[in-house]
Amino acid sequence: MITSQISQINQTVLECLNKTDEISIVGAFAELGQKVLKADFGFVWIDSLGSRELKLVYKSEHAPFTLAAPKEGGRNYNVLENFIPDYVTRVKKSKNRYDVSKYVQSFVIIPLTYKETIYGTMVLCFKKLKIFSREKKVICEYIGNSAAQAITIGRLKKKENRAMHVLAKHEADLKEEQLRNQFLADATHEIRTPLAIIKGNVDLAILGDNRIRGSMKKTFNAISHEVEHLSNIISDLAVLTSNKVMLQSSFISKKVDLGNIAESVASRYETLAKKKKISITTKIARNVAISGDSIYLERLLSNLIRNSITYGKVNGRIRIEVSRRKNRAIIIVSDNGIGISKEDIPRIYDRFYRADKSHSSGGTNTGLGLAIVSWIVKVHAGTIGVKSSLGKGTTFHVSFSALKLD
Ligand code: ADP
Question: How many angstroms is it from 368 CA to the middle of ligand 1?
Fold first, then answer.
């Protein structure tokens, strides 16, 4: 007898394995409970996630009344606390509003508990007097535990489904980004050559054709300038879009002396700085090396220094420092130029973002310089920070893990 009831319970557990909907899991067990214990109707209360408050999630269709919500200190909560069913054989007439004695002669409150977790209670009601034999009590406990087990599995499954969903979305996003990057990489490659040809021809015309004079020469110069701007954008885009591929293939990790790079980039920018009467001073510590790609690290420094000149004031100062602090290699590039406003700071590393619109128009800046800097910092597992105040100047601070001294 008991074995057939237990096998029915096991069958319900199996059927619930595919379910994540708690209400339908609980409903299946409440109906099973009524069937195997020959109850007339039932109710299930479960906690709303993370709180002790019990909510009615199941009520038999033919239940002649609705139970009042359990109260702290009442029978349902006692069952939750003690983990053992409460068997009431003979319901006495009660004076309170919820006298159920005319509908129910016996009932059992079964805790739905699995290991340390309590989900709620199942109440099975009997119109006629019911004697709860030892066998029936075992079945009650078994139903409670099995229902709780099914709820546990359901909640885990729900969590897993959510995680799978997030993962699938990540994968789709990644694929989309790869496709976009591939497209940009191909497009930039295709655009580069004709641009170089246009620029070559325009420059040749300006220099070599003496019929080009006056306003015509101005137009040609403007074309040359814009083509140069376009070429800069294209070459910056090429760096940014081929990054993933580069990471795997052409990124060369070698010992790089940051001081040497800083010195050589600084001296390359002397002439440009002089045009604005900007002085560049350096304070370079010896033997500050990291493991990285010298071409990209050079690019990082030249983008920072070029910006300091572009956004520097006439007669201004630029200071470049390379130092070691504990096991970190530090690069600091600071200027006393126009500065960046507080609102703009969070966006300066975005692609194509330019805070200072007046310098943006007409210049050959692409708004990609800092996006590239930030990418180079990232692939070298470094950090970058900026301090700036409008009208006073800007300091970029880059830090990498330093190689140990030989
Ligand atoms: P851009 O090609 O426009 O210079 P970047 O990505 O290098 O693009 O810089 C983004 C924006 O950040 C710039 O347009 C400028 O407004 C601001 N910026 C960058 N460096 C400095 C600096 N040293 N001083 C003031 N503003 C700066």
Answer: 9
Are 305 and 187 in a shared domain?
A: no
User: Which structural domain range is residue 218 located in?
Assistant: 165-246
Pocket test for ligand 1, best of 232, 340, 361 (most atoms within 8 A of CB): 340
Distance 393 CA to ligand 1 centre (A): 12
Residues forming beta bridges with residue 284, ordered by sequence position: 322
pLDDT band of residue 357 (cuts 50, 70, 90) is: low
- Would you tell me how many other CB atoms lie within 10 Å of the CB of residue 78? 16
Radius of gyration, alpha carbons of the chain: 38
Q: Judging by beta carbons within 10 Å of its beta carbon (0-12, 13-18, 19+), is residue 20 exposed, middle or buried?
A: middle
**Does 243 contact ligand 1 (Cβ within 6 A)?**
no
In angstroms, what is the span from residue 288 Cα to ligand 1's centroid?
A: 27
Same domain, 200 and 95: no
Domain count, the chain: 3
pTM more than 0.70: no
Q: Is 113 in the pocket of ligand 1 (CB under 6 A)?
A: no
Compute the distance between CA of residue 158 and CA of residue 164 in angstroms, rounded to an integer: 10
